[in-house]
Amino acid sequence: MTLPVSAFIICQNEAHVIENCIRSVSFCAEIVVVDSGSTDATLDILERLRAEGLPLRILHEDWRGFGAQKQFALEQCTQEWCFSIDSDERVSPALAELFPALLADPAVNGWKITRYDYLNGYGYVPPSSHERYHNRLFRRGKGRFNTTDLVHEGIQIDGVVKKAASGGLLHFSPIVLHEQMLKENKYSTLKAKMKQQRGIKPRPWKMLISPPLFFLRWYVTYGLWRCGWPGFIHCAKGAIYSFLTEAKRYEYVAMERIPPVEPTDVKGY
């Protein structure tokens, strides 16, 4: 069954994950992919899938930042409903089965959908340990991204938004810890810069409070304790990201106040 949905995806060098993502939304009438300059086999894979008959529209757009790039992709969608999915995500079988019912509710303009992370050494977290819900599916014209979001872009939806009752997105990102921490370092820099641009003042006390609260929210509230040590590591990575974000925001201001110029008076050392 083909549904009146435009799935939209932004990507760059995602050859290792893009095919399974595209196939998981093959029930959509349109799949919009905006590539920002892949140099691996991503575009070859997309062209092969389009040749198979999948309803792919492949576009190029230089990188604008996460929020602006996704808003550009959204603006290319033509169907009644729009569905945001990342290249390392897949629609679970339960969510795919639920899609027709989600679209059939006339009182709803958008749906929040949960996500199940893949943990190295464990696999996908169990349904009882899912992530928080995110705005992902909405009527065209009722949702938008903040184009100033440098990272962790969210969708603002007008009107009634509900949670999908079952299923979710399978987040397959089996990155080794070394590479994952490089990513967390990059994203924390973007978030700190975004806070700086928006005039959000540093709150040094959050370096103490945010990391343990982040860990406990994921480990206890989201139930990652069920996943053993892989779950512990996943939550600890998030806590480190939380600390780095707050520390970098503080450091930007501190270095403006006291520039890193080597002191000339070093007596007593």
TrEMBL record:
Coiled-coil parts of chain: none
Domain Glycosyltransferase 2-like: 6-133
Domain of life (superkingdom): Bacteria
Family assignment from sequence similarity: Belongs to the glycosyltransferase 2 family. WaaE/KdtX subfamily.
Protein name per UniProt: Glycosyltransferase family 2 protein
